[in-house]
Amino acid sequence: KFANFSNDNLKWANEQIENIDQDVKVTDLLTAEQLLVKHSELGSEINAKDEEYLNTIKLGKQLGITDDILT
Fold first, then answer.
1. C-alpha span between 63 and 31 (Å, rounded)
2. Distance between CA 10 and CA 3 in Å, rounded?
3. Over 80: is that where the pLDDT of 62 sits?
4. What value does the mean pLDDT of the chain take?
5. Which pTM was predicted?
6. Whole-angstrom Cα distance, residue 47 to residue 41?
């Protein structure tokens, strides 16, 4: 269960990093506004994932996995 949770969190984080790393050249107001909305949505997703992330850490600690491995 822990491995699934941690792998899911890692996969999601890597997907978000790939999305952020995409070069978007802002040349007009509409593109800037769209990018701002996209970043705002990502911020909301990160906040929503926070509890899942903390639960994964808690489960890891219950399994005896040390903090230096969890973070």
1. 46
2. 10
3. yes
4. 86
5. 0.66
6. 10
